[in-house]
Amino acid sequence: MCCSGFYNVSSLSTEGAMDPRKRCKHCHRILDRNPRIKKQDYCGRAPCQRARKRHWQTQKVQNDPDYRKNQKAAQDKWSEANPDYWRNYRQWNPKYSERNRLLQRDRDAKRRSRRLAKMDALKDVNAIQPASCYYLSPAVDDLAKMDTLTQKFILIPACCKDCGKSCKEGLDVQLNSG
Predict the structure, then answer these.
(1) Please, is 78 exposed, middle or buried when counting C-beta atoms within 10 Å of its C-beta (0-12, 13-18, 19+)?
(2) Dihedrals φ, ψ of 117, to 5°?
(3) Helix 65-81 vs helix 46-63: crossing angle, to nearest 10
(4) I need a surface site. Which of 10, 82, 135, 174 has the fewest CB within 10 A?
(5) Where does residue 28 fall: left (phi above 0), alpha (psi -120 to 50 degrees), or beta otherwise?
């Protein structure tokens, strides 16, 4: 600043500073600002206007339940009026059908693999305090769980007929006498 309180224009550098002009959110070109549009974020090119509308519509569907309901109703009505559309589309576009088939195979494989191995099948296991435990888990062919429910079992043989007041006492008597 010079002594008069104004900036010396020759001392201000614009190197490394951000471009003060606003850019289009879609194509990133510098906007030719329209003075009638206060919050202009997109330029007037057709692809940018389509992107602007798509962004607005996405936000509207997320935030407005009435709009979402009306959009769904319109889609359902169109589907009823055009029941063969997707069948015809797949027939006219075999590359689309093949690509979709391959992607569906991948999705199915991922879904099957998610069912196979679960690292956290039991959530609230804080109350279970296993000592010497056997693992008890369901016998399913395509299931592998790392944290199956554990329970402590005391095996009582069939030959234990003279049980005392409790099964544990009777088991001790049988084991010590045998």
Answers:
(1) exposed
(2) -125, 120
(3) 110
(4) 10
(5) left
